[in-house]
Request: fold
Amino acid sequence: MLNYKNNDPHIEGTSLHDLVKVCETPFYVYSQEKIINQVNKTKEILGKNIFYSIKSNSNQAILKLMNSLDLGADVVSVGELKRALDAGFNPNKIIFEGVGKSEQDLLYAMHKNIRLINTESLEEIKLLDSLATEKNRVVDIGVRLNPDIDGETLNKISTGKKTDKFGIEIDKIDKIVELVKSCKSLNLVGISCHIGSQISKIEAFKNTFNQMKMAANKFIESGINIKHVDLGGGFHVKYKDSDPDFNIGMVKEELDNCFTKTNYELSFEPGRYLIAEAGITVTSIITIKNNGGINYLIVDAGMNTLIRPAMYGAHHEISAINVNSEEFMNYAIAGPICESSDIFLKNIKLAKQKIGNLLVIKNTGAYGKVMSSNYNSRPLPSEILVHNDNYAIIYSPEKIEKTIEADIIPSWL
Ligand code: LLP
Reply:
């Protein structure tokens, strides 16, 4: 994402060094142009029914941008629903997923007249029917199916296998039909699925499409008028320089092969694919040490800033800004958190570094800031959006004093 103008690293037309002057590291930077290009490319290939999965990056400025690009929103909590509404998404372009929606959540979504509530269990369907009946409403719903397909992704981000907690097993369609027919206040109009995140195998998408077409046809044969078929997200992002390119055109080919001669309205709900590559995390080297022969660069970003490496063993490339040294060294890059898993990369060759230098962690636009925490009582990272030679700080964390104030001391202490 960085381009160099006279040896000066830039994001679009903005110098990284200018950002460091106005914002303390660690922080996230997003390129507006990159987001727009990726969204437009995805819409051109997959069609207009794209619901941005806002869990991947739900900053209000990003949501406003995504809304201006005519995307819908896929939300998984009332908090996310409020964010989407606040950013201006039309309620009829919002779908509400989630494996555990409470009565309050369902009532709120119903009250806001969103496009679809995608139910994930037979119990949830029953609860929603009773709430809609109480409110004298008829509500359009979808059902998330679990197609029992292994997306062959990291174990912790797989969602489409029979034993995963998500959706209703695809071989329980008869049960769903029977239940929905007995519901007075629900219209089942859609089915959805999502087999996992960071999926590179086109075969997995092909199998999913076939399963979903069979399922939709089965509902129709049983007298349920399915209109929408939502095929989830999960498109692969190239985190390692050595990863093969992911060709979304091939997903489109499989889609066309599978759904020819059908009239379903097909949609997708990607998150990562739209924004991961448009973001970087900028961090400074706090100290340098050698332990047991390993050269550690201890940086000010930690697992509290970007948890993906510690949590999933996920890989993010890191590059140095100071590359002037003739001497190269092997480094381990670790955060300041008191946990052994607070390591970003174990063995990376960089030009010799010194304290105070900047490093850039790449492709962190998705599931970066949204998963950050105050662990070790560190502040959350700031976020900056760059637009040509303009930039804006779009998230500024509360001071740690404010975080401390939120704790309440009981009267007996
Ligand atoms: N739809 C549903 C129902 C989902 O659960 C998800 C992601 C998506 C869409 C969007 O998936 P995407 O296109 O972004 O792959 N924190 C993990 C990823 C968890 C994804 C959870 N669900 C990570 O950092 O890799």
About this structure: The mean pLDDT is 96. The first strand starts at residue 2 and ends at 5.
